[in-house]
Write a structure and sequence with these properties.
This protein has 299 residues and is an alpha/beta fold. The chain has a single domain (2-298), classed as Rossmann fold. Helices cover 39% and strands 16% of the residues. It is built from eleven helices and twelve strands. It has helices at residues 2-12, 74-95, 132-142, 145-149, 168-178, 197-209, 227-237, 248-255, 257-263, 272-276, 286-298; strands spanning 17-21, 34-38, 58-61, 104-110, 121-122, 153-159, 161-163, 191-192, 194-196, 215-219, 225-226, 268-269. Helix 2 links the parallel strand 3 and strand 4 (104-110). Helix 1 (2-12) crosses helix 6 (197-209).
């Protein structure tokens, strides 16, 4: 989802894009500005033809299995981990072998780094939390350390929940809310750190083009909300009531560990590093982000 949005934004401004794909690469369309290169993350160095990626200005790594598409069995936890940590290691291994490596690697991470922290306000200096998500994010970010040692500027993009035009949480929730079946999760007091799709793309481009930014960057809007607030805003956006709360115990029965770590965890994250660097959010308020996403998805 984010990769597609990034490619569109770069194409609009005339920047050439090289996209790593697992399938057989398609022939580039005239004027499209996107060239595909095959890779195999399970192979040493990602199985990438190094000559094809020489001389890049920047690399943006967004790979990762959907954390909300399956119940968190031991097998799926392993898939979640490998899709993030394994791919980051493979890509980093390839980049450090280049004669002319990129100046910057911007690699996805998540606000799950901080874990369930109640009402605590969390910035990039906050310590990691405890649990599967925080441990995953620490290992995920550590996987790109060889790039740092090779002199590549590395940015860890700690994404919040993305309010996206196509896909993501809003796309999944909108049909339920339009049927009047939306409601808070658990007691609704848990904090949700969110960001609009437009601001994600702008923040990533800002980070890779700003030489003063490295290390962790919280890619979240400056105003996190509680789940109850999010529910009210979502219901208001689709002009329906939100009167069907989902009890915490029901989420735990249905989803297992994912309920506590992804849906009921309280993570109140703010973006001081972006703000101090001069980044301006297009959608600093959830009302505006939802309106933009719903307007786009409806036409």
């Amino acid at each position: 989802m984010l990769g597609t949005a990034m490619c569109r934004a770069l194409q609009r401004e005339g920047t050439a894009v090289l996209q790593l794909v697992r399938r057989e690469p398609r022939q580039p369309r005239a004027g499209a500005g996107v060239t595909e290169v095959r890779w195999n993350p399970a192979a040493p160095g990602g199985g990438i033809d190094l000559t094809a990626i020489e001389g890049l200005d920047a690399v943006v790594h967004l790979s990762g299995a959907n954390v909300a598409s399956h119940r968190w069995t031991a097998t799926y936890k392993s898939e979640i981990t490998e899709s993030r940590v394994g791919t980051t290691r493979a890509l980093t291994e390839a980049l450090i072998q280049l004669k002319t490596p990129p100046k910057v690697l911007a690699a996805a991470s998540a606000v799950g780094f901080y874990g369930d922290r109640g009402d605590e306000i969390l910035d990039e200096n906050s310590l990691a939390g405890k649990g599967f998500f925080p441990e995953l994010c620490q290992t995920w970010e550590a996987a790109s350390q060889p790039a740092v040692q090779a002199g590549i500027r590395v940015v860890h993009l700690r994404f919040g929940m993305v309010i996206a035009r196509e896909g993501g949480a809003v796309a999944k929730l909108t049909p339920l809310f339009r049927l009047g079946l939306g409601g808070r999760l658990g007691d609704g007091k848990q904090w949700v750190s969110w960001v609009s799709e437009a601001d994600v793309v702008a923040a990533v481009l800002f980070a890779i083009r700003n030489d003063g930014i490295s290390g962790p960057v919280n890619v979240v809007a400056p105003e996190p909300v509680t789940n109850a607030q999010f529910t009210r805003e979502m219901a208001h956006a689709v002009h329906r009531p939100a009167v069907v709360p989902v009890p915490a115990f029901a989420l735990r029965v249905a989803l297992g560990d994912m309920a506590d770590e992804a849906l009921l965890a309280s993570t109140r994250v703010v973006p001081p590093r972006l703000l101090a660097s001069g980044f301006k959010f297009q959608h600093p308020r959830l009302t505006d982000a939802l309106a933009a996403a719903l307007q786009s998805s409806s036409g």
